[in-house]
Specification:
Elements: H1 18-30, H2 41-50, H3 69-80, H4 94-107, H5 117-126, H6 135-146, E1 155-160, H7 165-177, E2 181-186, H8 190-199, E3 204-210, E4 217-223, E5 226-227, H9 229-245, E6 254-256, H10 259-263, E7 268-273, H11 276-281, H12 283-299
Parallel strand pairs: 1-2, 1-3, 3-7, 4-6
Antiparallel strand pairs: 4-5, 4-7
Helix pairs in contact: 7-12, 9-12
């Protein structure tokens, strides 16, 4: 924690006590993760990634794909200069490789799709890492504006990690009745859900989960340099409608970097529903409310539509 700039009481070093738990919560909040105070696999991965700065290592396409804050900064810089590296997700994938190769070609560098000292120097000179507008965000808005404003013919994924089979199935059936093509994804691992949704070429992802809390929450993907406008709009619609038609209290939507939101390639939301007893009692109404939100989103997928 200290290595990534999060303070921990010196007297507590070597013991996982109150100061460490508080430090983990602060780190999780800063990284767009759920504030649990538990250093789980997702938090540990985020800690490792936070240790990389652009220029610390060579970046290139490999398997497994490189992840880290240095990749995030590279994508942000490329996107701000008009080279489409895709979503700023900190994962060096094929689209980032293509954007890097185009950048090298346009700046007279060796076109090897490897980010080394010369690429870092060129990005710094051109100011790409300090700009706030990303081509990925512009492209998402363009795609959403060009999409048909009805459910018929649209490809959608509905996923959950378990415990919500009835709700997910009902949502999928209602969407299918309106002409949408649906992929129902039941996998405990968020990364597997994201991989399947990407392979299905879904246009939107609706993630469902149960939480043992009195207030439901809805999250969409947001990080420094990128905000999913489509995901934010859907999260807004869901959070507005759940209290009105399903009787569930719902917090304001939040831009987070949960693995599922980070790794999906389309606008996505994760709807964390609670309390469980109320969700079960109102399952039919919750399903209808979610479908209404999706229908309204398809008709108007951007806040400024």
């Amino acid at each position: 924690m200290i290595a990534v700039g999060v303070a921990v009481e010196r007297a507590e070093l070597g013991d996982y006590r109150e100061s460490t738990t508080d430090a983990v919560r602060r780190f999780q909040e800063a990284r767009g993760l759920l504030r649990t105070g538990v250093c789980d696999r997702t938090t540990w991965s985020a800690l490792v990634e936070a240790g990389y700065r652009l220029g610390d290592r060579l970046l290139y396409l490999c398997s497994p794909m490189l992840r880290g804050d240095d990749v995030h900064d590279l994508q942000h810089g490329l996107g701000a200069l008009g080279f489409d590296a895709g979503r700023v997700d900190g994962i060096f994938g094929p689209q980032t490789e293509s954007a890097l190769r185009q950048f090298q070609r346009n700046t007279g560098l060796t076109t090897d799709a490897v980010c080394g000292p010369e690429v870092c120097a060129s990005l710094a000179r051109l100011g790409g890492r300090t700009a706030t507008v990303s081509v990925a965000g512009v492209r998402e808005r363009e795609r959403l504006r060009a999409a048909p404003p009805q459910l018929a013919g649209r490809r959608m994924a509905v996923g959950h990690p378990g415990g919500l089979d009835v709700l997910a199935t009902t949502v999928g059936r209602l969407l299918q009745e309106e002409g949408a093509t649906i992929a129902l994804l039941h996998y405990r691992e968020p990364s597997v859900q994201a991989k399947e949704a990407n392979a299905f070429a879904a246009e939107v992802f609706l993630g469902l989960d149960l939480i043992d809390e009195t207030t439901s929450r809805v999250a969409y993907y947001e990080t420094a340099g990128f905000r999913s406008a489509g995901g934010a709009r859907l999260a807004e619609l869901v959070s507005e409608r759940l209290p009105l038609t399903a009787g569930l209290r719902c917090a304001e939507p939040a831009g987070l970097r949960l693995p599922l939101l980070r790794e999906t390639r389309m606008p996505a939301v994760v709807v964390m529903l609670g309390p469980p007893s109320r969700v079960v009692e109102q399952s039919g109404q919750v399903a209808s409310t979610l479908v209404t939100a999706v229908r309204d989103w398809v008709a108007s997928p951007l806040a400024d539509s």
